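Submission checklist for the structure archive. All mandatory fields must be present; incomplete records are returned to the submitter.

[x] Identifier: 1-acyl-sn-glycerol-3-phosphate acyltransferase
[x] Organism: Cairina moschata
[x] Residue count: 267
[x] Sequence attached
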Amino acid sequence: MELGWLLWGAAVLLLLPVLMELSPAVNFALRIGFYYLLFFVCSALTAPVCLLVNGGRTVKNMRIIKTVVKTFKYFFGLRFEVKGLENFEVEGPAIIVSNHQSILDMMGLMEVLPDNCVQVGKKELMYAGTVGLIIYLGGVIFINRKSTSSAKMVMAEVAKTMATDNVKVWVYPEGTRNCTGDLLPFKKGAFHVAVQAQVPVIPVVYSSFTTFYNPKKNLFTSGKIKVEVLPPIETKGLTSDDVSELTDRCYRTMRATLFRLSGRPGE
Ligand SMILES: CCCCCCCCCCCCCCC(=O)SCCNC(=O)CCNC(=O)[C@H](O)C(C)(C)COP(=O)(O)OP(=O)(O)OC[C@H]1O[C@@H](n2cnc3c(N)ncnc32)[C@H](O)[C@@H]1OP(=O)(O)O
Ligand SMILES: CCCCCCCC/C=C\CCCCCCCC(=O)OC[C@@H](O)COP(=O)(O)O
């Protein structure tokens, strides 16, 4: 019986590289499955450490989470080329906005995440098993995207407390993943919060993943991701009437940067 299992295991191990080579679908499934597994297992292992070190839900846990997630890139042959980190060095809180292409973004997020920075996430993530637990412990702010009123209330609370808590808040203004190499229209919530709190908006742009990652084509290989932190956009003196213009300005700047970083001709 044992010999049978041993032979079976050896056959799979020998066949796997061949299968991955022959079938992009198998390669994609195994690599993305391993990514999920990494998240699931590392979350289970990191949660007790966060509880022991910091006692509960606090942005301080993001340091521990960041240390763990920054190792993931090595498993997938991904490299980050980062520019402009000095733009995070603003006095006090800020709203950080970035493009959002895939769950692989979590590696890019942790690659540059400044201290005392929490993220805004869809509330469904709370139920993602051990990952839900660890992102709760990391201080992630959960919103219900399906209820604008409740999401606005949560965001309004963030605008009030981010100054006292001295935290930066990272928002994905596209509101969903988008791996087309372009930007979706921006939701305005992040910009309302920045104006309400009178804090700067710091745009962050990641180059397009399309050269190494495309779920529709079962493409997931190694690759280089360029990251650029852009200069802060001040909101002092702005009011809610200025939010649309602020959103559009940020969108245009980030889209031009995305095209530049991705080697795509601008429009
Ligand atoms: C060891 C392993 C560990 C691994 C751990 C990994 C750790 C990191 C985890 C990080 C998780 C990250 C997850 C990311 C996501 O989940 S992305 C999806 C969720 N994010 C968002 O949706 C982005 C934020 N969304 C918004 O800000 C929206 O604006 C929202 C507030 C939700 C409202 O959306 P919606 O109604 O769809 O559209 P609009 O934005 O156009 O708003 C409609 C009108 O309302 C006005 N508005 C919006 N917000 C506000 C506000 N805060 N105050 C006042 N008014 C507001 C807006 O102006 C629109 O009105 P007008 O059209 O202007 O009249
Ligand atoms: C015991 C219960 C087990 C439950 C199994 C859950 C296992 C979960 C394992 C890994 C989950 C990895 C998720 C990492 C965080 C991903 C953040 C992210 O990128 O979410 C997508 C969100 O931005 C936008 O969502 P949509 O594009 O709108 O959709």
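[x] Structure attached
Curator remark: The mean pLDDT is 95. The longest strand covers residues 223-229.
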